[in-house]
Amino acid sequence: MDTIFTRLDAAPARSRKAGALPAFGRWLKACVARSRQRRDLGLLSEEQLRDIGLTAADVDRECRRWPWEGAASPGGGRVRRSFAR
Question: Which of 17, 24, 30, 70 sits 20 to 30 Å CA-CA off 79?
Fold first, then answer.
């Protein structure tokens, strides 16, 4: 059985304003996910942190960051990186 993958955002927006709300929704969703991940990271025990190579100071620093830190801005200020092959 073949699997078909479809991009949900494949259809181009008709205008800049038309694409603003879906872009903001994706950005907000990423912020909520990042917040949950940081909360879960803060719940790990010292032994679990050692297993993944983190210290309590690393976790404290990460958990103090704002949810939008590390997310692309809704205005599209994404950084694209190219990798040499």
Answer: 17
